[in-house]
Amino acid sequence: MNRKQELLQVAEKKVREGGYNNFSFRELAKEIGIKSASVHYHFPTKEDLAAQLAKQYTDNFINALGNPKTLYDCGTDPIIFFASLFKHSLEQDKKMCLCGLLGAESDILPQLVRVEIKRFFRKNLAWLEQAYSYDQQLSEARVKQLAIQTISLLEGAMMISIVNNDNTIFDSALAGLISIK
Amino acid sequence: MNRKQELLQVAEKKVREGGYNNFSFRELAKEIGIKSASVHYHFPTKEDLAAQLAKQYTDNFINALGNPKTLYDCGTDPIIFFASLFKHSLEQDKKMCLCGLLGAESDILPQLVRVEIKRFFRKNLAWLEQAYSYDQQLSEARVKQLAIQTISLLEGAMMISIVNNDNTIFDSALAGLISIK
DNA sequence: ACTTATCTATCTACCGGTAGGTAGATTGAA
DNA sequence: TTCAATCTACCTACCGGTAGATAGATAAGT
Predict the structure, then answer these.
(1) How close, in Å, is residue B6 to chain A by CA atoms?
(2) Is residue B180 over pLDDT 80?
(3) Is A165 helix (H, G, I), strand (E, B) or coil?
(4) Which of residues 73-112 of A touch B (CB under 8 A)?
(5) Tell me: the pLDDT tens digits for B27-76?
(6) What is the mean pLDDT of chain B?
(7) Separation CA A30–CA B142 (nearest Å)
(8) pLDDT tens digit string along A4-26?
(9) What's the sign of the alpha-carbon dihedral B113, B43, B13, B80?
(10) Please, which residues have CB within 8 angstroms of residue A19's CB and are 6 or more apart in sequence?
(11) Which residues contact A174 (CB under 8 A, 6 or more apart)?
(12) pLDDT one-digit tens code per residue, A116-139
């Protein structure tokens, strides 16, 4: 892994723990063993670093989701698969969704970062809408509604699970995904 | 309003915009026209201020909720009432739930603050469980599940509405409250 | 093959500004 | 005279960012 990726990895950890204001160039530098001034070689500004971090996070997530049609065709419920990615992230990293935390701080984010956070949710909602639209009985409006409810439920449940340090809370919320169908 | 309340009011605005790291004694002092050193007279430390802020926020919210039995008896759906308080907060203040934002930052909060955030959700879940339990057809386990789903959905929807600066997203999520019953 | 120029990645040293917090003096009202 | 409330003045530590230097790799011209 190159230096740039090392920096992004450390930054992701810090941001997912405490948001945009919870990392500094000095801290990132110290953790990988360089000087803070050198971080500016890889990322001109803090805004730039956070924006690239959010972009990469979104790209990785959307990539991991794949195509809902493929899942649907091989008999996997795309919605359950979507939820399982959130669950995996919570259990493995024991941290918030990067864009969930930054999203809550939207008002104070530098513009380049806010743009990337909006993109995360736009992409996720589009994916969910596509997934729900395979159910022919659902109207277009209902499909949009279900997409919003699904991601809202997952982001909210993730947060409350972290507050209580109890992943069974997330599992209880998951049950809601079936009953709202 | 006394100085202490003035400080808490300004702090609430800042924290609901950008979390725990988004306010400083200097800023608070400047906004109400005193010196930062004077803030320490009212609140010994930043941790103390934030903890009192979260405590007061919780108390006010629980107080506004009242008794679910009272609502139920006079024909008001307690769950819809609960949601309307969230909606009102989003529309009036155009800001996140204080405890929703701080909750996402749980990992980095000073202990006194984290304790208050946990209390917010414990109190809210208890209220919701009581509200759902008036439906005799629901098992105890199902009641707990519904309480978690309800507050998760609302907190998540609030966040996504703020990201997109679009309250109709919150309204779409509200529709989920009826279908998960 | 040798030289020159450029690029990459890092360094040291510094800037102005802000953070939370403290000590001790001052003010004004009961 | 006591005491709540605020002040001035200060501390140490950290912040994001900049300037300029350096060493080593790479590439291009002759």
Answers:
(1) 22
(2) no
(3) coil
(4) 95-96, 100-101, 103-108
(5) 999 999 999 999 999 999 999 999 999 999 999 999 999 999 999 899 99
(6) 94
(7) 49
(8) 999 999 999 999 999 999 999 99
(9) positive
(10) A101, A102, A104, A105, B18, B19, B21, B104, B105
(11) A83, A87, A157
(12) 999 999 999 999 999 999 999 999
The one-letter amino acid at B166: D
Residue-by-residue DSSP string for A93-160: H-S--HHHHHHHTGGGS-HHHHHHHHHHHHHHHHHHHHHHTTSTTS-HHHHHHHHHHHHHHHHHHHHH
Which residue, among B14, B155, B177, would best test binding to A if mutated, counting the most A CBs under 10 Å from its CB?
B155
Nearest CB among B153, B155, B162 relative to A149 is that of B153
> pTM for the whole thing?
0.94
């959130």: which residue's tokens? Answer: A86
The predicted model gives A32-59 an average pLDDT of 94
Percentages of chain A per state (helix, strand, coil), in multiples of 5: 80, 0, 20
